[in-house]
Amino acid sequence: MDSLTQIALGSAVTVAVMGRRTAVWKSALWGAVAGTLPDLDAFIDHGDAVLNMVLHRAESHALLFLTLFSPLLAWVVTRLHAEGRLWRRWWLALWLALVTHPLLDTMTVYGTQLLQPFSDHPFGVGSLFIIDPAYTLPLLVGVIAVQCGARLSWNHAGLALSTLYIGWSVLAQQQATDVARADLQSRGVEVQQLLVTPAPFNTVLWRLVAMTPTHYLEGHYGLLDGDRQITWTVHDRGADLEPAIAGHAGAQRIRAFSHGFYSLSREGSGYAVTDLRMGQEPAYIFRFDLGDGSGAAPTARTGQRNDVASGLRWLSARVRGIEVPSPGAQLPGVKLLGSAELSGPAR
């Protein structure tokens, strides 16, 4: 999740645990620090764009390492504020602030390696967008209210509402998944994998990515769409390019990290790999130049975002159930499901 959300969550958790045993500003401040610390790994440059991606949310987000670090952080805090008698309480509060950070990150689609060093599996439920005001605002209101003298119950209410919202997001994701599967089945399309993630800033509109052996399909489903059929755009996933990049370590890392939701394409005289989970046709955040496919040179990130203004206009309409073609469906020559052949490369 975004930095503001992690700060708000860390503060809310620490205030809830410390209560009035210490000044609220202290618990809110150190909760914010603990909620920020795991993301400092984003400043580490590994000399390769793919490595920078897959090694974010790794050791710094591991539950074991954060658990081992929490008593040391609690010792520093109690020494600074001469509150040695509260060390155990600070330890609990800061441990919870630290570990709720990666647990919340796991609700996004990116991938969080909770079990390092035993496993590098990137966990990602994908039911929350990385920025979602409906999750963040209750936390902020609760913490700020207590800072301004309100009862601790305001903070507790903020935590309860945000937690309930996570539960809602999982239920909404399942509803969108069921509708997408039924839609594809009714058209006789067999897919290998189906990804369902929220469109930006909400859990009402969902982005759908379905993988076939040769193509990937992108569609959107809104909870207010009624019984309207999903519009799927069809895109070549570059399966015929696999042999050319078979020995490229970066490409293999993206294949594993994305859980198979990736595409390959030609990039001038070389190749590119795209993580299809984050972004939307035709722009993706994590797209990487693989050079000639040999892996001799470091990868470079070439991803981009869609135009913000037009994207927000489209999002505003689709969230309300208004049928508007997605940016990908508006591209010249785009293929729609029903008019594209899925047994070979799209043309």
Describe this structure in words.
With 347 residues, this protein is of the alpha+beta class. It has 2 domains: 166 residues, no CATH class; 149 residues, no CATH class. The chain is 41% helix and 14% strand. The chain is built from 9 helices and 11 strands. Strand 5 and strand 6 form a beta hairpin. The two termini are 38 Å apart.
Helix-strand layout with pairing:
Blueprint: H1 3-18, H2 24-36, H3 49-54, H4 63-80, H5 87-105, H6 133-147, H7 152-186, E1 193-198, E2 205-211, E3 215-222, E4 233-236, H8 249-257, E5 262-267, E6 270-275, E7 279-280, E8 283-284, E9 287-291, E10 300-301, H9 308-319, E11 335-336
Antiparallel strand pairs: 1-2, 2-3, 3-4, 4-11, 5-6, 6-9, 7-8, 9-10
Helix pairs in contact: 1-2, 1-5, 1-6, 1-7, 2-5, 4-5, 6-7
Structural Rg: 22 Å
Strand content: 5-15%
User: The biggest beta sheet, please?
Assistant: 5 strands, antiparallel
**Kindly state the mean pLDDT as a whole number?**
94
- The structural class is alpha+beta
Q: How many distinct folded domains?
A: 2
**SSE order, one letter for each helix or strand:** HHHHHHHEEEEHEEEEEEHE
